[in-house]
């Protein structure tokens, strides 16, 4: 007769596998980017090497082969999580979904079109960790010093960055760069709204954090087509800018003087 296990004990074969959370979650919102999935995943894996990480793709209602490409990446053994929106809800909604699902302490956001270089992520992560060691909650924003976009896109971005910087004073020369690294818990304090991904530096300052910029590589798109129009971004951005400025003026950060009791 086999003795019953003692109270509170769990047989070894019944113990669940405990997987430690990764240090870093790379969150990538995509829509119709099937040909860019495999190359970008391979670059991320090469760049991060021994850094414990996961890659959280959020498919924002793609109508091409993006779901199949993500399944293939998972089948190949990459640490890819694939979350799909039934309908397209926009880039900001996809970023929010990804950050909420992420398990890492640190978040790196990356555009899914291959224009951001994953090789820059370790340097931005190191800067963020150094800021944390100094007691600061910091968003490290990529700065595309040499942009590889069309002349019209660069021109409208310069205008938008100048207006935004003057109005919001967000201490960032290139808030539109998709490559950023920040603490997950900081992001979860932000108000969530459509197009918020363009204003993460201003929202960081509003939450009492700090913002620093690091120069990063920028590459031309070689596969697929952009899902965003220049005039669409410009017109929507004007309304968003007014809204974020209003949020900044209305924000109050209490200073805890005392916390008594258990």
UniProtKB/TrEMBL annotation:
Q: Which residues form a coiled coil?
A: none
Q: What would be an example GO MF term here?
A: undecaprenyl-phosphate 4-deoxy-4-formamido-L-arabinose transferase activity
Q: Where is the Glycosyltransferase 2-like domain?
A: 25-187
Keyword entries, A-Z: Cell membrane, Glycosyltransferase, Lipopolysaccharide biosynthesis, Membrane, Transferase, Transmembrane, Transmembrane helix
- Which InterPro entries has this protein been placed in? Glyco_trans_2-like, Glycosyltransferase_2, Nucleotide-diphossugar_trans
Any one GO CC term of this protein is: plasma membrane
Kindly indicate whether the keyword Transferase belongs to this entry.
Answer: yes
**From its record, what is one biological process in GO terms?**
lipopolysaccharide biosynthetic process
**Entry-linked SUPFAM superfamilies:** Nucleotide-diphospho-sugar transferases
Provide the protein name: Glycosyltransferase family 2 protein
Which organism is this entry from?
Neoroseomonas soli
